[in-house]
Amino acid sequence: MRKIVKNISQKLLKLDLLFLCNGKRFNSFIEHSDLTNESDTDEIIDAIKLTVPVGCSKPLIRIGGDKDGAYLIPNDLDDIDACFSPGTDYTKSFEDELAKKYQIKSFMSDASVKTSSLKLIEGYQFFQEKWISDFNYKNTMTLSNWIKSVNLDNPKNLILQMDIEGSEYSSLIQTSESCLKKFKILAIEFHNLDYLKNERFLNQRFVPVLRRILQNFDCVHAHANNASPCFEIGDYKIPRTLELTFYRKDCNHGEKKRNIPHKKDIVNAPSHPPIVLGKPWT
């Protein structure tokens, strides 16, 4: 009987995972298509205004050098427990600087990268060949389960450095508030902002994710990644890829300063025209 129940459970799990995978493909297809209504211009602008920084009470520092993959984050790293980096590049300059300069451990994850191709810093860098998404199965894992799996001792001040090519929406909307509050700093690359013209993407992906984050975090910096050109909504020029830094509200107290653009911003793709954020960010 136990064997029968186990077999049934396994089949149900496979069906559930098949549904999730196909559901993601379906959502992607719909959001790329013209099968849903076009978003209202005012609603798109309201959504973009969620990404406008309120300012930071600490100076911003650049971690990761002067090339793509580096981010501006608050200079408040003394009590950081660890960094989680879904979406790993072969150069991993962000995590290297955290290890060498601040002695901060980094946990990295990416199913498209082989462990053997990375020169991990022993004792400070740990890598798994998995996608970070909204379900757990074989080479896929949720952010919440990933944090639990590394067995940190009650972490309260983590860094999230996320660049997962559009999967940030499904991953973050699945992540509980209690899990997100374990992070002190979030540096997230938001992709496919041109899909905001699609009502489904706007209302079921982008806005819910930003509102969830903003419950407990302040946006403290915004930077346009110039690897793709801007698109226009009314008289707004919006980048297709936007790097946002968030700082937990209970840490961001005191006078807040905002500088857009920031003197420490870099050009992600030197061969492409630079993008300087205008309104509503300035």
Keywords for this entry:
Rossmann fold, 282 residues, alpha/beta, two-stranded antiparallel ribbon
Detailed description of the structure:
The chain has 282 residues and is α/β, with parallel strands linked by helices. It folds into two domains: 1-35; 40-248, Rossmann fold (3-Layer(aba) Sandwich). It contains seven helices and 13 strands. It has helices spanning 2-32, 41-48, 93-102, 143-149, 168-174, 177-180, 199-214; strands spanning 60-63, 71-74, 82-86, 106-109, 125-128, 131-133, 140-142, 158-162, 183-190, 217-224, 230-233, 236-239, 242-248. It has a seven-stranded mixed β-sheet, covered by helices on one side. It has a two-stranded antiparallel ribbon with strand order 1-2. Strand 1 and strand 2 (71-74) form a beta hairpin. The longest helix has 31 residues, at 2-32. It is globular and about 50 Å long. The model has no long low-confidence stretch (mean pLDDT 90).
Largest sheet: 7 strands, mixed
- Number of spatially distinct domains: 2
Mean pLDDT score, rounded?
Answer: 90
Poorly predicted residue ranges: none
The separation of the N and C termini measures 66 Å
Total strands: 13
CATH architecture tag of the largest domain: 3-Layer(aba) Sandwich
CATH class of the largest domain: Alpha Beta
N-to-C order of helices and strands: HHEEEHEEEEHEHHEHEEEE
Q: Specify the structural class.
A: alpha/beta
CATH topology of the largest domain: Rossmann fold
| Rounded Rg | 19 Å
Estimate percent helicity: 25-40%
Lateral strand order in the biggest sheet? 5-4-3-8-9-13-10
Strand percent estimate: 15-25%
Overall, the morphology is: globular
